[in-house]
Amino acid sequence: MSDPWVRPGWYSETLYDAVSQTIRVDRVVHRDHTEHQDLVIFENAVYGRVLALDGIIQTTTADEFVYHEMIAHVPILAHGRVRRVLIIGGGDGGTLRRALMHPGVERATMVDIDRSVIDLSREYLPEISGQAFDDPRAEIVIADGARWVKDAEGDPERRYDVVIVDSTDPIGPGEVLFTEEFYGDCRALMTPGGVFANQAAVPMLQGEELTTITRRLRPHFADVWAYSAAVPAYYGGLMTFGWATDDTALRRTDADELARRAEAADLVARYYTPELHAGAFALPRYVRDLIAG
Ligand code: SAM
After folding, report:
1. Nearest to 141 by CA among 99, 176, 118, 112
2. What angle separates helix 180-188 from helix 145-152, to the nearest 10 degrees?
3. Rounded to the nearest whole angstrom, what is the distance from the C-alpha of residue 282 to the centroid of ligand 1?
4. Which of 272, 279, 281 is CA-nearest to residue 69?
5. Which residue is closest in CA terms to ligand 1's atom 9?
6. Is the Cβ atom of 177 under 6 angstroms away from ligand 1?
């Protein structure tokens, strides 16, 4: 038995003060100080390859499908007529790949601050993005998402049916992607009835963060809510995705209609199902209370 007090060769996440998940490092694949973040990719027998930025697990090749399918397919299929998608962050390419699975999507613009995350994910985690970065419908921009969204305001070419914020946590470069001003700037780029979704906290451990996100979204959208999934590598149980739109009917789109849309798109998924999509908006009482603030 190894000593539970000291575990050399294990990676301990530094996201929370009082708890931490620890993952055995079977092999360090790559380590880098990028211009913006400390990046490590390592191998683990359970999670496959693990990408961490600034001490926080971002994605793993074993469970990425849960997070990426839910952050992309839910807003796109709920909307039903998506032509243009904007992704802020998402450097590993998993969200881009899922967005481009929808044949109606004519353009998916991805804005990430850190080119190294994209390059290193393509090199060491190629299964996450598949061919997405080479898809002619993909437009990749290297910029701070908050700055880019502000500058895009008023440009008729920069209008989106779905905006997905696939960001790091609100620490370091990702912090600007959690402000009320940023949410308002995203809203300004959206077509009528557009849907905004974001990476929005593990409620058991980041309850205040979920409350703050929904409070900051509320001034800009008629319907602000959250939907959930359990992503194993995001320690702490259920995680939530933020949901914001002016079309209050969209989150109640029923499973039969979602199934028709998924079938029309020929969607192949490992986690997503229309029933699960519809059910993901049913939240535990404590999460509803956090949203209510
Ligand atoms: N699924 C992940 C999670 O929930 O932890 C997010 C993964 S994705 C790798 C996060 C991306 O956000 C990174 O590629 C990072 O470079 C990008 N990012 C952080 N701050 C940003 C900013 N201000 N503008 C654009 N991209 C940003």
Report:
1. 112
2. 40
3. 27
4. 272
5. 91
6. yes
In this prediction, residue 2 has a pLDDT band, given cuts at 50, 70 and 90, of: low
Q: Annotate 33-56 with b (16+ C-beta within 10 A) or e (fewer).
A: ebebbebbbbbbeebebbbbbbbb
Catalytic annotation, residues: 166
User: Which residue CA neighbors atom 3 of ligand 1 most closely?
Assistant: 58
The contacts of residue 14 (CB under 8 Å, 6+ apart) are 20, 54, 55, 56
The rounded Å distance from CA 111 to ligand 1 centre is: 9
For atom 14 of ligand 1, the residue with the nearest CA is 91
Question: With a 6 A CB cut-off, is 167 part of the ligand 1 pocket?
Answer: yes
pLDDT in tens, 205-216: 999 999 999 999
Please name which of 63, 167, 157 lies closest in space to residue 109, comparing C-alpha atoms.
Answer: 157
Instruction: Give yes or no for a contact between 161 and 85, defined as CB atoms under 8 angstroms apart.
Output: yes
Question: Max CA-CA distance within the chain?
Answer: 62
Convert the pLDDT of each residue in 28-79 to its tens digit: 999 999 999 999 999 999 999 999 999 999 999 999 999 999 999 999 999 9
Both tokens of 150, joined, read 């502000």
Question: Checking DSSP bridges between strand 223-230 and strand 238-245, what pairing results, if any?
Answer: antiparallel
